[in-house]
Amino acid sequence: MSRLIACGLAAGLLTTLAAQAAEDSSGLALQEVTVTAQRVEENLQTTPISMTAISGDFIQKFDLPRVTSLEMVTPNLTFNSGTGGSSGQVSAFIRGVGQFDFLLSTDPAVGLYVDGVYLARTFGTNLELNDIERVEVLRGPQGTLFGKNNIGGAINISTLTPTGSGKTDFRLSYGNYQSWAADAYTDMRLTDTLALGVSLMGRKSDGWQDRPLGDNGGKEERGGGRAILNWTPSDSFSSRLSAEFSAQTQPSSPNVMIAYDPAQAVAPFQPLFNALVAPCCTPPTDIDRSGAEGPLVRDDLHGFAGSWINDWKLAGGADLKSITSYRYTDAVFGRDGDNSYVNYNGDIHDEHDNTFTQELQASGKWTQLHWVVGAYYLNERTRDQTNLVVAQGLFDALTALGPANPLYVYRYALDFNLAYDNRQKTEDYAGYLNLDWAFNDKLSLQAGVRYTDETKDFSQSVMNDQGKTIFLPVDPFTGATDTSNTTVPSKACSSLMDEGTYFTCKTSSKEWSPRASLNFQWTDNVFEYLQWSKGFRSGGINGRPTTLDQIQDYKPEHLESWELGVKTMLWDKRVRWNNAVFYNTYNDIQVLLTEGTTVFIQNAAKATIYGLESDLQAALTEHWSVQASLGYAHNEYNDWHDSLGDYTWRKLQDAPEWTANLSSAYEQRFASGSGVRFTANVGFQSYQFLDGANSPILRAPSRTLVDAGLFYLPPSGKWDVGVEGKNLTDARVLSSGYNGLAFFGYAEGTYNPPRRYWLTFHYHIH
C-alpha cells in the first residue's frame, strides 16, 4: 500500500512540474470533457474517480460497434463473451471483479447504464454503439450514486439528445464472410420546442465457422432502433421520452471442443452413450469447423425498452430529475457442447425479463456545499427455462436392455436430461446522499452514502425426461419417488414440494455503501484526490443444483477500495494524462465452480487486488492525435479452503494482470481540399483464467489485437469512404469456455473472431 501511495505522489509531482514547464501556444488544446459520473454534469479533470471517457466521435472514428468493444480502449476492463452460446450478453470485469454467470440467480458486479437507467440482466445488453454521445467507464465501487451491485464499477452510456440540429449520419459497410452493416441517425426539429432523434441499425453476415449441417458459427442477423423525443418548453423544464427495440435470429456463438479425455470423467455417461446410443466425440482439428447443429444452436433475442426523463430547474439553482424506465427482454440461446450431430451434451435457455425502475434525484449548491440526494426503486420479474441435455437417448437404451441386464437399474440414476423452471422477483429500495464541501479554492471534501434494502423471491422446479425428481431417491424398477426426507440444507429455502421437484427461497440484503474523497486542486491543470469507498453484490441461490445438498444460498460479497489519483492537463492543454493507483480488499467472493458432477456457487473467502490505471490523450500536431492507456491489476487470495482442499493459490477469473491500449489517428488535407485519414488501434491483455477453478485448459494466453482503417475525405466534408480491418494479425485466443472433463470427458470454448475487413461509406451532415 505504501509503495502505491508513493507512486501516486511521485506522479503528482512529476505532472505538476511538467505542467509548469509547458509553454506551447499552438491553439491545439483538447476540449473539456463533461461527464456525469457523480449524477451531475462536471469536468472529467475534477471528478475524483478513476474513469475513462469515450466520445461518440471517437467510437465512430475507431469503429467500436458494441459494448464489448470498449475493452480495446479501456484499462483493466475485460469481457467474457459467448457464454452459454449468447453473443448478446455482457459479462464485464473491472479490476478482476465481474459477472461469472448469466443465470437470473446471480447479479452483475459491473453495472451497465443507458441514460441513467440500470440494466439488471446480462443477456440482451451487448448494445450497439451507433447513436452515442459518450461512454464513461467508472472503476471501483460505484454503489453510492449508481443503482445496485456496482461493486466492480459501472459502464455509463449516454445517448444523443435531439436538439433539432438537422444532424444526419448514414454508414454502410460490406466485408468478408458476406457481411453487411448499416447505421442511420437523424436529428430533426418538429416544433420550436420539440425535437426528434431516430437511429436504426442492421447487421447481417454468413459467419466464419463452417458447420456443414446448419448455419455457420458467427452468422449475424440482427437489427434495432431508438427514437427519442426531447421537449424543452422553457429554460426551467425539459422532458425526454425514449423508446428502443432490438431483434436478432441467428445461430449460437461459434464454440468448439478444445479437449477430449473420457478417462477423466467420474460418471459413466460417455462409454455407455458410445456403446448404446451413438459414438461421441471427435475433437476438431480446426477451431473454425464444427458439427454443431439442431435446436440447441440458437441465439435469438427480442427486446423493448422505454425511459422517460423529466428535469426541472428550481429556484436557487437546484435541479430535480425523475427517471422512469421499463425494459422487456426475451432471449433464447443455447450451445451444442459436443459439437456434433448427436445430443451428448448441451443446453438451451429461454429467458424472460421485465424490469421497472423509478429514480428521483435532486442536486444543488448552498454556499460552499454541493449536494445530491436521491431515492431509487427497482422491480424485476424474470424467468429462466433451461433444458439441459446429458446423453440424450441413454435412458431409453438402458430400458431396452430389460430387467435381466445389470445396467438396467441405473436408468433413472443416469437420466440427467433436466428441465429447469427458475423464477425470481426482485424488489430494491434505496436512498442516497452525496455532499461536496469546498473549504477554499484548492481543498474540498466529498462524502456520500447509499442505503439499499433488497429482497429476492426465488423458485425452482426441476424434472428429468421421465418427470422424476433428481433430488430424491427413485426406485430403479418402478420409478417411485422416496419422499421420506424433503428437507433442504438452506434455511432460506422451503422443503421440497410436489414429489420433490419444487422449492422456494427468499433472501434479503440490507447494506450501506459509503464513499469519501479528499480533493486538492494544485493548479488549474493538476487535480489530486484520495478516495475510500465500499460496495457490495447481493447474495442469492445456487441456480444449478442436481442433488439435495446443493440447494444452498450464498452470502453477499463486499469490496473496500482505496484509490489515489492525479489528473493533469499538460503542454498547453494538448495532453490530458490521468493516473490512479488502488488497493482493494475483496471479501466473501462469489465464485462459480465445476467440481466433478457438481456446479455450484461458493463464497471464496478473501482476496487482495492492487494496481494502477493510466489514461493519456494527446493532440501531437494539428494532424495527429493519440489516445493510450495502461492498466495493472495484481490479485491474490488471502485464504480460500474448504473440505476438498486449499485453493489460496488460485487467481480471480477474467483478470489479466496487464492491459494496454493505443489508438492513433492521422488526418491530412491536401491543396485540393481532399484528404486522407488513417486510424490504428492496438489492444493488449496478458494471460488470464476463464473460470473460477483456474482450469489449465481454460487459461487464455496473452493476446494483442490490431485494428486499422484508411479513409478518403472529399473536399465537401459530407462523406468519406475507406477500408477497415479488425484483428489484422489474425490472433485467435479463447474468450470463454466450460471445463466438463471431470463429468463429461470434454472441455469446450469460444474463440475471438478471425481477421475481418470492410469497405465503408459514411455520409454525414453536422
Explain what the structure shows.
- This protein has one domain (2-376, 387-487, 515-765): Maltoporin, Chain A.
- The longest helix is centred in the N-terminal third of the chain and has 20 residues, at 2-21.
- The protein has a 22-stranded antiparallel β-barrel. A five-stranded mixed β-sheet has the order 3-9-10-7-8.
- It has four helices and 43 strands.
- The chain has 766 residues and is mainly β.
- Mean pLDDT is 91; it is low at 1-25.
- Strand 12 (179-189) and strand 13 (194-205) form a beta hairpin.
- Helices cover 5% and strands 53% of the residues.
- It starts with a helix and ends with a strand.
